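Entry 0007
Protein: DNA-binding transcriptional repressor AcrR
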Amino acid sequence: MAKQQVRKAETQKSLLSAASRSFRSKGYAGVGVDGIARAAGATSGAFYSHLGSKDGAFLAALELGLDEVIETVPDYQRRYNSNWPEAFARYYLGSTHRRDLACGCAMTALSPDVVRSNDETRELYEHKMKTIAELIAKGLEGESDDEKLNKAWAFLSILIGALMTSRAMASEDQADAVASAAFTSAMTAVGHE
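Output (structure tokens):
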């Protein structure tokens, strides 16, 4: 009985990981249930048993991805103290992160599909993104909480948009130029000029 429960948990984890990587790298329309199941080394039946539907898999992958950011922001704040926005932005816009679609940030990879998704998915996204913005705001200086939150939203928006734009460039030189310009703007947005 215990082995079966462990195997079931491992299958669910594998399916969720495969769904997350697949949606991030190929988008919602670019992958199907069979492809996710195959990437997880599972059957389509196992997929439906564990994740319910493609929409259910996307919702779970979105939650997983945004929770990764929720864990990462405070880690950067602890490790880099007042210089954390610079360290975070350098990583976020860096060429290694730009090239890693499957394991890159869910904020950038999944937001375009959230726009076209159902209310439940958009509500989860909004809740998680507000949490991320509030965590970022806690690590910023400002006259008021509202000012810090506005800075956080600007910082996030610049990074997400720049990562998406730089990933779409045909040449690495142009991707670097986009990332560099965005880095400067992101630092200005949070008062690290």
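Curator remark: The mean pLDDT is 95. Residues 54-189 form a domain with the Tetracycline Repressor; domain 2 fold (CATH 1.10.357.10).
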